[in-house]
Amino acid sequence: MEIITSAQNQWVLEARKLQQKKFREAKGLFLVEGLRLAEEAAKSAFVEEVYYHETLGATERGEELLKTLSAKARRFFQVTSKVLNTLAETETPQGIVLVCRCASSSLKDFRPAEGPVVVLDGLQDPGNLGTILRTLWAAGGKGLICLQGSADPYGGKAVRASMGGIFHLPVFTDVTWSAAARWALDQSYQTVAADAGGGRDYRKLTWQDKTMLCIGNEARGLLSIPVAEVDERVFIPLAQGAESLNAAVAAGILIYEAVR
């Protein structure tokens, strides 16, 4: 096992580039930090590199995690606190940062038997994206489709907000609406768009086992999805005087209604 003490080490420099979207896309890799997320990553086959501080192995939980990761990762490094802090985007990386592979599945090969799929149309806040992914995972959803112009699900804030959901559900990025609509038609999925401006009360819709729920931009709603091309539009009734719901909260309500 190699011990890295310099932030200028070649592996550290390459890993640090993954803090930028262009390098994540070019290499098909992303960063994961923190004990809880590392444990979720360890359940997957996506771990490439491990960077950890020696204090992690001082606990039974940390020791078990390192044992599992050592059998999965291609490269395994012990690093100093200074090196770890250059890789981490948070102030408390909890002693470990991983480099993981992005999922490489194709939408055309995605064939869930049933269960909701969420489409994000121009959603910009990575925290909202990660929270929606976390909720979709918890509700038994089947996948997340990010249309062009949406936030990057592999960015640090989105990954952390997903609380491990990024490792458990297929995520498709840079998808056009025409491709998503064609997929829904081929797989016999009902398309339902959240639309604060119209449609029917979400509680009055007959939700199908195969539902593709479309969530738009936080401020502007649907951007690339023509409302005429979805099967249904739904809204969530609000108390008098309330203007709107957070996008992730609204998505959570509708996801759980879809599986109820």
**Total number of strands:** 12
Regions with little confidence, pLDDT below 50 for 5+ residues? none
Physical arrangement of strands within the biggest beta sheet: 8-7-6-11-9-12-10
What's the architecture of the largest domain in CATH terms?
3-Layer(aba) Sandwich
Task: Please outline the major beta sheet.
Answer: 7 strands, parallel
Instruction: Report the principal-axis shape.
Output: elongated
Separate helix tally: 9
Overall residue-averaged pLDDT value? 94
Structural class per helix/strand content?
alpha/beta
What is the string of SSEs from the N terminus onward? Answer: EHHEHEHEHEEHEHEHEEEEH
CATH superfamily of the largest domain, please? SPOUT methyltransferase, trefoil knot domain
Q: Quickly count the domains.
A: 2
